């Protein structure tokens, strides 16, 4: 027996958090009966239907994607804009992105149908490092970097300690290239952090996710994670 939201997530329908939303919204039936209780447990013999679709457990799959700029991190878009899944048309699994990257941000993104791992990787308590390289306006100073490392106030809450370093000043003296490593995932966090120290982001890319990087990939390309990489990702969260 396992919790209903976990069973839905493991079937590749949605992340565990979205599965919980489907349940509380009355969009899930177990053996023909609408279930709204998150603590409900189901077995392999139960029939679970989510938004009219009967779930079947899929093989868990994991992909590393080099997201280009100008692409939406979602499974669909009502405005007809290109989404990350448009690059996975040949993949038969019902995958979805782990977390998100802004429309104008490029870089490393994971996609999977493993709702349990998705839930852990996006939960702040597991503190998975994510490294960004930003081109920012103006010349970053040592006090600016210290402020980023110590944490800044955004949306009424101080950010956690981070790693920040100057990669190189811009050739024109009007910009800087900065590397910033954080483990939180607050909305537009990196951009807001640089805004606080007076250096708005002009260009942003996420280069590393935990121990994973973009080596060998160009924008728009992806690869399936190797078994040992999947195990290492799980270990990042299981040890917490």
From TrEMBL:
GO terms for cellular component: cytosol. GO terms for biological process: enzyme-directed rRNA pseudouridine synthesis. Its EC number is 5.4.99.-. The keyword Magnesium does not apply. Gene3D superfamilies: Alpha-L RNA-binding motif (3.30.70.1560), Pseudouridine synthase I, catalytic domain, N-terminal subdomain (3.30.70.580), RNA-binding S4 domain (3.10.290.10). Pfam families: PseudoU_synth_2 (PF00849), S4 (PF01479). Residues 2-65 form the RNA-binding S4 domain. One of its GO terms (molecular function) is RNA binding. It is an enzyme of class 5 (isomerase). InterPro entries: PsdUridine_s_RsuA/RluB/E/F_cat, PsdUridine_synth_cat_dom_sf, PsdUridine_synth_RsuA/RluA, PsdUridine_synth_RsuA/RluB/E/F, PsdUridine_synth_RsuA/RluB_CS, RsuA_PseudoU_synthase, S4_RNA-bd, S4_RNA-bd_sf. It comes from the Bacteria. Belongs to the pseudouridine synthase RsuA family. This is Pseudouridine synthase. The lineage of its organism: Bacteria, Bacillati, Bacillota, Bacilli, Lactobacillales.
């Amino acid at each position: 027996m396992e919790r209903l939201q976990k069973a839905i997530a493991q079937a590749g329908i949605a992340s565990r958090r979205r599965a919980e939303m489907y349940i509380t919204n009355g969009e899930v039936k177990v053996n023909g009966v609408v279930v709204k209780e998150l603590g409900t447990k189901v077995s392999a013999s139960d029939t679970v239907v989510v938004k009219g679709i009967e779930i079947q457990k899929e093989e868990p799959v994991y992909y590393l994607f080099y997201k280009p700029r100008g692409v939406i991190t979602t499974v669909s878009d009502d405005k007809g804009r290109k989404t990350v899944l448009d690059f996975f048309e040949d993949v038969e699994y019902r995958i979805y992105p782990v977390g998100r990257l802004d429309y104008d941000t490029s870089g490393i993104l994971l996609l999977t149908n493993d709702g349990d791992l998705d839930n852990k990787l996006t939960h702040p308590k597991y503190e998975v490092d994510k490294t960004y390289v930003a081109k920012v306006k103006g010349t970053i100073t040592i006090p600016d970097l210290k402020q980023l490392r110590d944490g800044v106030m955004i949306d009424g809450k101080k950010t956690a300690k981070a790693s920040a370093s100057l990669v190189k000043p811009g050739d024109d003296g009007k910009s800087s290239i900065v590397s910033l490593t954080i483990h939180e995932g607050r909305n537009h966090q990196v951009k807001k952090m640089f805004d606080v120290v007076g250096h708005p982001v002009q260009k942003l890319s996420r280069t590393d996710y935990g121990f994973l990087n973009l080596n060998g990939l160009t924008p728009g390309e992806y690869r399936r994670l190797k078994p040992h990489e999947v195990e290492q990702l799980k270990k990042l969260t299981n040890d917490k």
